[in-house]
Structures are given as C-alpha cells and as structure tokens.
Amino acid sequence: MTSPLTGRVALVTGGSRGIGAAIALALAKAGAAVGVNYRARAAEAEAVAATITRGGGRALAIQADVSEGGAVAHMVESVARQLGPVDILVNNAGIAPVRGIDELTEAEFDATLAVNLKSAFLCTQAVLPQMRARRWGRIVNISSGAARGAGAVGVHYNASKAGLEGLTRGYAARLVKEGITVNAVAPSLIETDMVKAGIAQTPARIPLGRFGTAEEVAQVVMMLVGNAYMTGQTVALCGGMAFN
C-alpha cells in the first residue's frame, strides 16, 4: 500500500532533537520527504536525516536561523531544489530561557518572540507560494500550554506562544478556501531536554502521572496533517492538567 504522504515534502523547523526530531521521523514514516532544519546542532540534524534515508526515505538536514528572513528564504529554496516544493510546514523551532519578571531583559524578550513567533510568520510566508500553486498545504505550529496558563518559563514565553496561536487562527481564516489548513498543537510537560533541565523535575502535578513523550506530540501533528476539515484549531496535550 502507498504511504499516505508519498510524494509530499515536509519542512520541520528545529528538527534536530526532541519534539522536532520525532515529528520529522513520523512524517518520513508516512512517506514524506523531510527537510530537517537546525540552527546549531548539525550532527544531531544529520543523524535524524540519516535515520530517514536508512529507512528508504528522502531527507535533508538544512541549517538556518529561522528568525532571519534571508536565511528562511534560502532554506525554503534549498529544500524545494533538493526535495521538491514544500507541502507540509511544521513550525517547531523555539527557545525557552527561564526568567522571572524582574530579571527578564528587553533583549531576551525580543529574542524569544523572534524565534518562537516571528519565525513561524517568516516560514509560512516563504512556503505559501508553493502550497498555493498546488492548492494543498498543511501548516502545524507547535505552541504550548503556556499560551493559556502561567507556565514556568516566563512572560516572554507566554506571549510568544499566545501570539503563535493567534497567528494560527489568522492564517487559517485566510487560507481555508485555498486548500491549506493551519492548526496548532499545545503540549505541556513533554519529556524533552527543556523539561529535564528543571522546569518540572517530577510529573507530580500531572493527573496522568507521567510526562508526555515527543512521539505522542508527533501523533497529534500527524492527525492534523491527515485531516482536511480541521483548521484554525489548537489541540492541547497535557495529561489532564487542563481542559478546553
């Protein structure tokens, strides 16, 4: 049987590890060729791409600081040239410097919004012509429970993820008639390096009793990619800590 995404090309920002790597591998397993974006972790991104190619898929590890417009344009052009036009965009790149309200600096606030929010705008704008040409596209933005709750990182992170969900709804409303869906996934306390670094050392406050996994986030992303009727939605993934 043909895999559901055979012939499609995906681009995953921040795809070298954690949630991004799990999403890249899930997309490849479904048949998509995958551009694995990274900023600094070249070896890890190359390892993800190598895993995909060993399994018979097509992949490209591609460096770009996605908070910079020129770098994004070059990245999207390179993916299109080597893999094909982008059909699926997963905006996963993000930073989360933990800061209290009295120690947060203007530079840290600006950097967090640039990487977590502006990058999604830049990448979306860059791939839209390719999606519009085929009247088919899937855009999934990786948000966070911090978009609606206090969270443990800081107000800069809250603002960046709340903005990302607003961006999701805005694009969804404007692209719905062009065959392009735009949705978000909002994970909370997933067992990644960020959580292990001390944001939540134990899952004691999670009703389910454990941290989520990157693979479980990837499952939700794949559901959104496969659903042509859902758009403008944010899917929470939090082990029962909150309900929409």
TrEMBL record:
Pfam families: adh_short (PF00106). PROSITE patterns: ADH_SHORT. Coiled coil: none annotated. Residues 8-188 form the Ketoreductase domain. InterPro entries: KR_dom (IPR057326), NAD(P)-bd_dom_sf (IPR036291), Sc_DH/Rdtase_CS (IPR020904), SDR (IPR050259), SDR_fam (IPR002347). Belongs to the short-chain dehydrogenases/reductases (SDR) family. This is SDR family NAD(P)-dependent oxidoreductase. The lineage of its organism: Bacteria, Pseudomonadati, Pseudomonadota, Alphaproteobacteria, Acetobacterales.
